[in-house]
Amino acid sequence: MIKMIKLILPAIVILNLLMCPAQQPKSISIKEIDGRTWLIDLSGQPFFAHGVTHINNKKHGVDPKKIGDALKELGFNSYGYGTPPALKNDMP
Fold this sequence. Notes:
The protein is α+β, with helices and mostly antiparallel strands and 92 residues long. It has helices spanning 2-19, 64-73; strands at residues 29-33, 36-40, 46-47, 51-52, 78-79.
């Protein structure tokens, strides 16, 4: 399981960085701490990316801002592949 995470984690970070607009600083890095690979935020603290992919708001006609607010309230801190353009600047 840990080997799989170490293989997948860099790909997730790279995809998130590629999806960020050019004007945003690249704030996420990867660092090994005590034998474990972590995502590191701008302040240098490790964090776990808790995100969602494939958000389909068109099907139900829900405002993307309401979706983003609800996800943040639930503790999500990132979006992945399939995020509507209106949410791409909302979170990493």
